[in-house]
Every structure is written in structure tokens, then in C-alpha cells.
Input
Amino acid sequence: MSVAVLGSGPVGQTAALLLARRGVPVVLVDEHEVRDPVGSKAICQQRDTLDVWASLGAGCLVEEGLTWTTARTYHRGQELFSLKLPDAGSALPPFVNLSQARVEEVLDELIAAQPLIDVRRGHRVTGLTQPGRVVVECATADGPRRIEADYAIACTGARGDAVRRALGLHLAGVSFRDLFLICDIRADLPGWAAERRFHFDPPWNPGRQVLIHPCPGSQFRIDWQVPDDYDLSAEESGGALDTRIRAIIGSVPYEVVWRSVYRFHTRLVPRMRAGRVLLAGDCAHLVAPFGARGLNSGVADAVNAAWKLAWVLRGEAGEGLLESYHAERHAAAVENAAVTTATMDFLVPQDDAQRARRLDVLTRAATDPAACEQVDSGRLAEPFWYTGSPLTTPDPSRPFAGRPPRGAVPPPGPGILLPDVTVASGRLRDLARPGFLLLTTPGVDPGGFRSAEIPVGGALGARPGEAWLVRPDAYVAAVLSDPSAAEVEAALRRATGS
Output
């Protein structure tokens, strides 16, 4: 009984740790001998991602990360509006900014202390077959190697072509023409540490955008949209990069810590399950980074995959549960693609009509608060809601009203992630993680099922006489208004894909 996790970025690391915590031996494979410790890369870690990492013992990431609470938006140098991020009653911040390199370092320490995880570095995946089990072919400095496992989670990133090709899958979609220049700088900029700043068409990058994120250690990440023929080397050697940076920060001393140029994509594989292989993270979906939906959705993939594989390997569920991984996480990928595509259409208009609309919205937003709601610099990452999942038992009295306003979450109910609230014995989500959790309101007897009385009825909006069935990933599987043993059994069977 084992799972091969291919790729040891944060998504693969999270998957490996979650599997090991459930007693599943893991072979963690990565092509790199050592990590690259430089560069911010994915920096925005959302509250529910932090919650998962804290449950694994990486609570220090919350403490080390820089918490920002205000998002400011400008047009041609004039501030249009600012938004305060809601706290949602959680002990965790809405977001922290922390470099991917530091996240990987902390998760590596946890992996090194986990005897069920066998790390194989310097193993580049060259092929994959499924003759009953998963057989992974790897190239190493000492020659070819073969790794066998019962299942695999492919977290090999955007460049995981060998895995996708072996599975007959392709990252279909579009690539955006403009490039984006990213610089990490270290500077003393008082008042900037708790704010994300987004500039539309600033005088120092006319016709394009600039995004500024604070990071720990007096570092700031600056993203410029630049033309597709942009030459970073020429700009550095000619002094234009210094001019570009000083146009934003002024004459204060600074140090360039890291810089790179990226092209953004919106691409999805058609299937996130191929036999005994589940695809996760950038190996399965690529989206533009505005809104921080890349890494955060990849961690959600890992959470979904890990508990389902553990249940299948223990013989507690079958093919239906594995297939639900595709049903739930591909729907999440489609949602993220739709949200980020709408953002990119606003940031980088594709035709005259889109350009005219954007200019109209930004011009009106200077004086009209209603127009501010139409300004799209990225809807920040949020959980996906499994209200349409085959595992979710619907409740007609709690219909899902669709995507809520930016910064809001739906009220608790079937398919919704439990709110992150504290109870007498700890955090409510932590009570769910060992297995399925049945919560009951006072006086309810589920008939043969062990249950815990709901200590947070107000936070859940639970009604008298109800029982709430919660999955191991802390999503609500069912809310039962007449919780007989038969109804609980039926909801549990549905939630395990039976």
C-alpha cells in the first residue's frame, strides 16, 4: 500500500504529509537535487491553505508571513478605493505574504521527520504506465530508475509534460501575449508593509498595470505588465530597470533580491483523474496569478486527493470516491479559470470593446462607488464549494445562491467548508480531520452512530433537530433535518462515493 507523489513543490509536499498522517507510505519524487532558495514566486497564502499547513505542524508560516489587510487600487496615479479584508471570525489572517522558498523549507523539515515519506531527489520522471499498479520511470545521475506504487499524485507543475503525455492529457487553453516583469526588492518604505497596491495605467507604466506586494524582511514584490518584446538584460545593462524601480519608490536605497519575466496562461487538462493517477496543482491547471488562485487551489487539490486515496487504500471506499476527485477539483479549476480570465480581460483588454469598457469603468470609479465594484484587479482566492458534487446530499431548505460577493463566503451548508471557529476542545475543523464527523443539535439521537453535540450552532446556523455530516476535509457532506440511522447511513454512503 503506497502512493507515489511526483513533484515536491508545496502541492506535492502537502499531499505527501497528509497521506503520511493517515498512515499511507509515500515515495516523494523530484527532479531537482537541491532547492532554489531565491525568489518570491508564489507569495500569497490564503487562510484555508494556512489552516491546512498549521494542522500539519507548520503554524510558524502564519507567524513568519506578513499579514496585509488593505488592498488599494489606483488609476493614472489617483487612488480609486481601498478594501479592508474581513477577518471572518478566524484566528488566522485572510492572507499572509511569504516566499514559496520558505514554505518549502518548513514543509521539508516536517517531511524529514516523517518516517512514512521516502524522498527521492534527482529523479526526473520520463514515463509512466499503469499495468495494474503505477510504474514511474525516472532518469537519475546513476541511470534509469523505476518506482512502483498503488496510486500516484502528479504534482510536476506546468512543465510536467512527460507525465501528461504518458496519460494522454494536454494542458489546453490560451497564453497571454504581454509579459510580466517581477522584481523582489529590499527597501525601507514606511506605511507600505500592510498594503497591497494595484495601479492601472500609472504614469510610470503607461497603458499597462503594476502590482506591489509587501513581503517579510522589508522586501517588496513589484509586478509590471510589459510588452511581449521586453528585454530584461538590456534594461538592466542600460540602467532602465533602476529608473523603473525609482519611479515607484523614489530615491530611497534599495537592493534587487530577485527578478524574472513570466508569461501568464489559462490552461486546463480535460481530466484530473487518469486511472490510478490524480493530477494536482499546475500539472492540471494554470491560471494568471491575480487573485492568488494558483498555489492555493493546488493545496486544495492535495487535501482532496489525500483523504480519498487513504480511504480507498484502506478498503473503505472504491472507484466512485476516486472519480469524485475529478468531479470536484476539475469544477474548481474551471471556476478559477473563469474568474482569472475575467480579470485578465479587464487587465489586458483583447479588443476595442473591452478597452472602452475598462476605461469607462475606471473613469467612473473615481467618483462613483458603484463603479468601483466593477473594477477587476483579481478576485482573491477562496475555497471552492462542492454544492454540486456527487458526494454532497442537497438540502432543499438551504439552496446554494451561487458565487457570493468578493470577500464573502456562503452560509454554512451542504458542500460548504466548515467555518474556522474554536470550540472547547480546539478548532472545529481539526475535529473533522481524523474521519467523518457527525454533529447533532441537542436531543438528537442518530441511532447507532456516535456523534458530537454541535457546540457552535450559531456559527453554523444549525436548526433544532438537525445532524450535520462533515467530511475529513472539513466540508459539510449533508445536513439532515430528520437524522434517522437510515438517513445518516445513506448520506455517509453518498459521501464516500458508494
About this structure: The chain has a mean pLDDT of 93. The CA atoms of residues 131 and 446 lie 44 Å apart.
